[in-house]
Amino acid sequence: MIEVSGLLGLVLLILVIWAIVSTVQSHASTGAKVIWIVVLVLLPLLGFILWLLLGPRAGR
After folding, report:
1. How does DSSP classify residue 11?
2. 8: which DSSP letter?
3. N-to-C CA span, the chain
4. Would the pLDDT of 49 be above 80?
């Protein structure tokens, strides 16, 4: 069971890092980027779900 929770934690960490990088690359304002990054760092799971639903999209 410990291995599974460790693996899920690693997957969540990778997803949060991906969300932060995508947020930094987006065309959102600096203030919005900072707020999203703080939310992602302080509330990783909930922040990632909110980011998926409401977050800025990466610049293409």
Report:
1. H
2. H
3. 40
4. yes
